[in-house]
């Protein structure tokens, strides 16, 4: 009953990671080529190239910031789909999701924008409609991730940056909005390493000019407070000189894709054009070597991060699959059967469809173990599992209930169909060749059959058990229906 989905995902993931790493390496090579070209060009060309490289650094850094926001939104959506899609979300589960996302506060809204859960928990917010006036939540209502600027958290009233994602659940669309400290996203490290000059100013600002991150760190709240001259120069273009600055300074800015943010870099001209002044013409080659090393390390770390993430995803899928699979037969275990039976039973009641359950028991299985050994008994169990895979439909749910008992759920199947399926299964099991382990005939089965439409899963199992006991009492190798 296992599927190829996880293997298919893993197979696609490796080339995707390779392409992503290759693109990062190509980007690094392009940057290094740009720097090398600036060194060998003439003074006039070098000055123009340095300005181009300066702008490119801002654009690439803005894209890195966008990639981080995209990854964070993907993490939120994955966590929400995995743990917050149930009919009811407990405060404990919501708190664990928020902790996993390193979020200082979070809210879960229904499709009408009303609060389902909040962290930290605040009973006063339960049921309130808070999406109105919030760009991130309003965007989430339309089914895409939104990242506003620095806002006031509806939970803590502190200055935060929120990322809201929308996802589908059986009960309709929901919105998860996670708050992060305005300077607490992993953007401080990005702006710190955006430019290699010792003297620099790097800011990420929102649409209203409030600071999201800065390097060097500043207690200022807005760009105007941090650098009024730069704030006045910014509206004149994406690149230029900072007028009235104590030291001649050049700035560049770039929009962060997918967010109402801009990344701004300001560097003194003495640093920006140091490569084409007097003896410092040799400095660019040292910088080139440093950037090469740092860039290679970043690409290597990026590739390692992708590989680690893929391994964690694969490990998580394997653990989830192992938790639902019987290790001997490869079929569903009792826990998985219970979950799937509950689901198909709910569907049967909702659509008023018949649902049949087969409870299967191997006749004289203990005698087989005692006579031929437990290895032979294990082979008998695996043989029956193979018969079930051959006989049953793709939509049927089947697995090992425990010991030598197996359970089959047959959606949209009445009693006659269930009895026919049981007969086919008994015939297939009886026809297998087990002479290799000393058994003269195939596998003998007793099967209990129960059918219902508005019957609970537990009642169907109980009825199938009763019919199984009747089959055993009637002489084994029978398939009886509970009436």
Descriptive overview:
α12 packs across α13. The longest helix has 41 residues. Among the domains are: 98 residues, PAS domain (Beta-Lactamase, 2-Layer Sandwich), CATH 3.30.450.20; 148 residues, Alpha-Beta Plaits (2-Layer Sandwich). The protein is built from 14 helices and 15 strands. A 5-stranded antiparallel β-sheet has the order 2-1-5-4-3. Strands 7-6-10-9-8 form a 5-stranded antiparallel β-sheet. Strands 12-13-11-14-15 form a 5-stranded mixed β-sheet, with helices on both faces. It is 48% helix and 20% strand. It is of the alpha+beta class. It starts with a helix and ends with a strand.
Secondary-structure map with pairings?
Blueprint (H helix, E strand, L loop, with lengths): L4 H36 L2 H41 L7 H10 L4 E5 L5 E5 L15 H7 L8 E3 L6 E11 L2 E10 L6 H5 L8 E5 L5 E5 L7 H4 L1 H6 L5 E3 L7 E8 L4 E8 H4 L10 H40 L11 H18 L3 E8 L2 H8 L1 H18 L5 E6 L2 E7 L3 H16 L14 E8 L4 H17 L5 E3 L2
Helix pairs in contact: 1-2, 1-9, 11-12, 12-13
């Amino acid at each position: 009953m296992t599927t190829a989905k996880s293997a298919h995902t893993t197979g696609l993931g490796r080339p995707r990671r390779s392409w992503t790493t290759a693109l990062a390496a190509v980007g690094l090579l392009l940057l290094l080529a740009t720097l090398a070209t600036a060194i060998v060009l003439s003074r006039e060309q070098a000055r123009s190239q340095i300005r181009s490289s300066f702008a490119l650094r801002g654009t690439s850094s803005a894209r890195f910031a966008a990639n981080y926001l995209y990854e964070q939104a993907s993490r939120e959506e994955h966590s929400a789909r995995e743990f917050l899609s149930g009919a009811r979300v407990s405060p404990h589960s919501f708190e664990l999701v928020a902790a996993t996302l390193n979020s200082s506060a979070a809210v879960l809204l229904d499709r009408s924008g009303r609060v389902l859960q909040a962290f930290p928990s605040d009973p006063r917010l339960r049921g309130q409609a808070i999406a109105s006036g919030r760009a991130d939540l309003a965007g989430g209502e339309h089914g895409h991730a939104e990242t506003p600027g620095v806002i006031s958290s509806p939970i803590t009233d502190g200055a935060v940056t929120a990322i809201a994602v929308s996802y589908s659940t059986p009960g309709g669309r929901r919105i998860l909005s996670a708050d992060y400290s305005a300077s607490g996203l992993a953007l401080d490290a990005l702006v710190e390493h955006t430019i290699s000059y010792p003297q620099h100013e790097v800011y990420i600002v929102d649409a209203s000019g409030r600071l999201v991150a800065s390097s060097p760190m500043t207690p200022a709240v807005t760009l105007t407070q941090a650098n009024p001259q730069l704030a006045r120069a910014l509206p004149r273009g994406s690149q230029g000189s900072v007028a009235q600055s104590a030291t001649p300074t050049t700035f560049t800015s770039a929009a962060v894709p997918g967010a109402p943010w801009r990344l701004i870099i300001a560097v003194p001209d003495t640093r920006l054009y140091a490569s084409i002044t007097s003896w410092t013409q040799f400095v660019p080659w040292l910088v080139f070597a440093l950037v090469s090393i740092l860039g290679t390390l970043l690409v290597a770390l990026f590739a390692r991060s992708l590989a680690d993430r893929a391994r964690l995803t694969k490990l998580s899928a394997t653990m989830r699959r192992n938790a639902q699979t019987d290790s001997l037969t490869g079929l569903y275990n009792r826990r998985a059967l219970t979950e799937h039976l509950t689901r198909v039973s709910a569907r049967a009641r909702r659509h008023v469809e018949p649902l049949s359950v087969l409870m299967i028991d191997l006749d004289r299985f203990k005698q087989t173990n005692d006579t031929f050994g437990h290895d032979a008994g294990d082979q008998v169990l695996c043989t029956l599992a193979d018969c079930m895979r051959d006989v049953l439909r793709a939509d049927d749910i089947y697995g090992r209930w425990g010991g030598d008992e197996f359970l089959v759920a047959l959606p949209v199947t009445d009693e006659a169909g269930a009895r026919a399926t049981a007969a086919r299964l008994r015939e297939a099991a009886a026809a297998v060749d087990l002479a290799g382990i000393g058994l003269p005939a195939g596998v003998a089965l007793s099967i209990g059959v129960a059918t219902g439409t508005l019957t609970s899963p537990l009642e169907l199992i109980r009825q199938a058990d009763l019919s199984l006991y009747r089959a055993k009492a009637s002489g084994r190798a029978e398939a009886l229906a509970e009436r």
